[in-house]
């Protein structure tokens, strides 16, 4: 494997660690230079990660979806990418630490265990499948972020309600803003999950004959999509908001994680590749 | 150093004495020139509700004469009410340090209150407009304003509310991000309630509703704060539309029950309702805090927030002291480097004299055009020779002793002392 790829595998966990360390310093100690450094470091990490994914795809001639550890790295990238978009859009940095800790662990595990798969099944070399998986990962990354914001909302909600004015109260943006951030992430997530499902249902049968609409992962993803769709509809039509929506966001994420874990470990289907 | 501070503040005198020595902007403009007529050279007079301080430099040989505090008191016709023991006098570098403490907010009555910065800036501007400041005073005040800026941006000395009304407004901003889309309801006309409503208006609250048992009181306040009056009997019904409630009513029992709020929340959906109950005894049933999305806080909460913020501010003081120490060291070095100025001037004069003599000695050998060129050329050479020694003497990083040694060496090498004595 090419040296730049190996170097990236070593550098990325270090870069993620440095990034969350800077965000943590800015959040817990309110160190101004750390706050100024946080966004450039985040974008440097994101660029390095993007470069790594492109290099790996080009070098190995398949999208990085052929092993769990490649998926982990892609997950780290997508969570960071979605977070960077939200930070850029809303100009709020104080939640970075809570989000970026996830990609750090994903990338750390990936960098430690990632190996080049010797024989890659032809289906995993398809760029169309790469698009389907990337969309699904972006969707999951967004709902992960939405859940983190939901969780932060609930923490701040309890601090204000029960007059415990700690560091969360001091540093986090207000409840309305956290709700907006969670909603933005949910919307992202729903759109990407929709794209992933459409790509899966419509396009993949053209590539493989093994597609089954009763596949557990397909079913699980559809249920998750329905939960988020119902939440968005409730917000739009029944004016749901505040704590109720945040609980729903955390619940949706827990369901997604539970369903994906159970399906991946205990059930089999055409969707299980490794 | 010839720099002093004469002052009166909340620690040395009660309000009724301090107010006797309070100077308006107009009075400052008239008193500064009159003070400068006798003993004083530079003069900046800072006057706020908590302190009046005169920062000044004296003319040489002006130690005697009428005490300054008396002249200030006479100007305000306050001799007798203001006595010498009410004032303090701080000399030299300690006066500079005191000004930095004041500007950074660590000497304020409410720790971290940095409104004083704008008052210092204004006083300094007035003094400058009256040509009442020299290089040293300018440097001191410019540094003081920088200290104030650094204290504000590099520490949290002025963060967090430290008054009841601000604490209430701060709490509301932790729930809502855009108050211009929100509606607040002020019930009653207690002083803290009114101040909180004023802060909300200052924070651009969308709509302000006012309710009072005596409708006229509400109407008077509504005219002042550009609010709208609602019937006191209809406050429970108004809860559906409002986001913030400030209650400050003198009532023997609750004016809003838990049931009132439950009913309102059913109509509101999950929209948060923030309630500040400043009444004693309390106006709102505390059980209402158990309702989802209702945030009910009372005086205890606000006092807790204030206490916490004050402790946080106090924990920032060491950081500010470090900033002040650093700036003081820099200022002191700069001030010490001023000692080199006479030597630099003499050295420049000595070299200029040599240059002029040599040029004049040979001048007849050249045409008028060439003479001009030679004059310019030789001046340039002298300036270039002097450039590095001047920088080194004024670099400001030497200790006082090193600087003195350097000055003495230069004077010895170029025979400046011999020349003076000769």
Overall description:
The complex is a heterodimer of chains A (274) and B (422). With 274 residues, chain A is mainly alpha-helical. Chain A has helices at 3-28, 32-60, 68-90, 96-113, 127-161, 167-171, 175-203, 216-238, 243-266. Chain A has 2 domains: 1-120; 127-274, no CATH class. The longest helix of chain A is centred in the middle third of the chain and has 35 residues, at 127-161. The mean pLDDT of chain A is 85. In chain B, a hairpin with a 3-residue loop joins strand 2 (40-47) and strand 3. Chain B is built from 16 helices and 10 strands. With 422 residues, chain B is of the alpha/beta class. Classes of the chains: A mainly alpha (274), B alpha/beta (422). The A-B interface holds A 30, 32, 156, 160-161, 163, 165, 169, 173-177, 180, 238-245 and B 153-154, 156, 171, 173-178, 269-272, 289, 292-293, 295, 297, 301, 304-305, 308.
Sum up the structure in keywords.
heterodimer; A: 274 residues; mainly alpha; 2 domains; 0% strand; B: 422 residues; alpha/beta; Beta Polymerase, domain 2; Rossmann fold; 3 domains; 6-stranded parallel β-sheet; 4-stranded antiparallel β-sheet; 16 helices; 10 strands
Summarize the structure.
The complex is a heterodimer of chains A (274) and B (422). Chain A is an all-alpha fold.
Described by the principal axes of the CA atoms, the overall outline of chain A is: flat
Distance between the terminal alpha carbons of chain A, to the nearest Å?
22 Å
Q: Quick one: overall form of chain B?
A: elongated
- The H-and-E topology of chain A, N to C, reads as HHHHHHHHH
Report the sheet with the most strands of chain A, covering strand number, pairing sense and barrel closure: none
Mean pLDDT of chain B: 88
Major sheet of chain B, described briefly?
6 strands, parallel
Give the assembly state of these chains. heterodimer
SS-derived structural category of chain A? mainly alpha
The CATH class of the largest domain in chain B is Alpha Beta
Radius of gyration of chain B: 32 Å
Rounded mean pLDDT of chain A is 85
Q: Most extensive chain contact?
A: A-B, 22 and 23 residues
- Examine the coordinates and then state which fold CATH places here, giving the name of the CATH topology of the largest domain in chain B: Beta Polymerase, domain 2
Q: Unreliable stretches of chain B, pLDDT < 50, 5 or more residues? A: none
How many angstroms separate the termini of chain B? 30 Å
Total beta strands of chain A: 0
